[in-house]
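--- STAGE predict ---
source: upstream dedup step, 1 unique chain passed
mode: sequence only
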Amino acid sequence: MIYAPERLETARLVLRRPRLEDADSIFHRYASDAEVARYLAWPRHASLDDTLLFLKMSDADWALGPVGRI
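--- STAGE serialize ---
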Protein backbone atom coordinates (compact mmCIF):
# COMPACT_ATOMS: atom_id res chain seq x y z
CA MET A 1 0.00 0.00 0.00
CA ILE A 2 1.33 3.47 -0.88
CA TYR A 3 0.92 6.27 1.64
CA ALA A 4 1.43 9.98 1.19
CA PRO A 5 4.71 11.19 2.64
CA GLU A 6 4.66 13.06 5.94
CA ARG A 7 6.85 15.73 4.36
CA LEU A 8 7.57 16.82 0.80
CA GLU A 9 10.36 19.34 0.31
CA THR A 10 11.80 21.22 -2.65
CA ALA A 11 14.28 24.08 -2.80
CA ARG A 12 11.45 26.61 -2.38
CA LEU A 13 8.62 24.76 -0.67
CA VAL A 14 7.98 22.51 2.29
CA LEU A 15 4.67 20.64 2.48
CA ARG A 16 3.92 18.67 5.59
CA ARG A 17 0.98 17.13 7.31
CA PRO A 18 -0.91 19.74 9.37
CA ARG A 19 -0.62 19.41 13.13
CA LEU A 20 -2.95 20.51 15.93
CA GLU A 21 -0.51 23.28 16.88
CA ASP A 22 -1.11 24.76 13.39
CA ALA A 23 -4.80 25.37 14.16
CA ASP A 24 -4.48 29.05 15.03
CA SER A 25 -2.54 29.85 11.85
CA ILE A 26 -4.88 27.79 9.68
CA PHE A 27 -7.95 29.45 11.17
CA HIS A 28 -6.69 33.03 10.92
CA ARG A 29 -4.89 32.79 7.57
CA TYR A 30 -7.53 31.06 5.45
CA ALA A 31 -10.10 28.75 7.06
CA SER A 32 -12.16 31.62 8.49
CA ASP A 33 -11.86 33.83 5.39
CA ALA A 34 -15.14 33.85 3.45
CA GLU A 35 -13.38 34.81 0.19
CA VAL A 36 -11.08 31.79 0.46
CA ALA A 37 -13.68 29.35 1.80
CA ARG A 38 -15.98 29.92 -1.16
CA TYR A 39 -13.50 27.90 -3.26
CA LEU A 40 -13.08 25.06 -0.76
CA ALA A 41 -14.94 21.79 -0.46
CA TRP A 42 -15.72 22.51 3.20
CA PRO A 43 -17.52 25.45 4.82
CA ARG A 44 -15.78 28.46 6.35
CA HIS A 45 -14.66 27.85 9.92
CA ALA A 46 -16.61 30.04 12.33
CA SER A 47 -14.33 29.36 15.30
CA LEU A 48 -10.97 27.90 16.23
CA ASP A 49 -12.89 24.88 17.50
CA ASP A 50 -14.03 24.20 13.91
CA THR A 51 -10.40 24.14 12.80
CA LEU A 52 -9.37 21.86 15.65
CA LEU A 53 -12.22 19.48 14.81
CA PHE A 54 -11.18 19.50 11.13
CA LEU A 55 -7.56 18.69 12.05
CA LYS A 56 -8.63 15.86 14.37
CA MET A 57 -10.86 14.44 11.62
CA SER A 58 -7.98 14.72 9.14
CA ASP A 59 -5.68 12.85 11.53
CA ALA A 60 -8.24 10.07 11.88
CA ASP A 61 -8.58 9.85 8.09
CA TRP A 62 -4.81 9.76 7.65
CA ALA A 63 -4.63 6.77 10.00
CA LEU A 64 -7.09 4.87 7.80
CA GLY A 65 -4.67 4.77 4.88
CA PRO A 66 -4.21 6.41 1.50
CA VAL A 67 -7.89 6.92 0.71
CA GLY A 68 -9.20 7.89 4.15
CA ARG A 69 -12.96 7.67 4.54
CA ILE A 70 -14.83 6.86 1.36
